[in-house]
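User: Malate dehydrogenase, Clohesyomyces aquaticus:
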Amino acid sequence: MALALPTKPTTCDLSTVAQPSSTLAPPTGLTLKLIALGKGTQNYTCATPTSTPASNGAVAQLWDFSCSVAKNGPVPIATIGKHFFFDATTPEFDLNGLGNTRLSKKEVFTAPIPAADVPWLRLETVAAGTTSPVKMIYRLKTKGGVAPATCAGKKAGSTVTVPYEAQYWVYV
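Assistant: Predicted structure for Malate dehydrogenase:
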């Protein structure tokens, strides 16, 4: 199977697109630049077979989902980058045409189905390691990614990966 080559973000009019309703208010004074669909894994580490899985970052491929949301319908989407963790607490986004952005978690909103879906987040850019005009990224409309309740049956030091999807709303 051939993979699509990464492209620059599509230009669609996002000026009338409203962020999904939650207590995570959209930023003031910033412009919505991109809506990315992320598919990947939330990663957890099991210290021992009897421990609770501890968050160990995430990895996701990102697609430009802007036109699908703006036009409220299916539009072909292109690969535009990737999401991963720089260290245990610093999410990083490498977005074609926008550069590399490291962020920190500033606000959390419980997902509509918290037992199954990871929380929605507001992330703000940190200066170190950022080569991008991006100021904030919101993780919204999550599906999946929640750690199992225990590490039963896992070896000490093993990693548990849980598939997830999310929309990433990118503001400059």
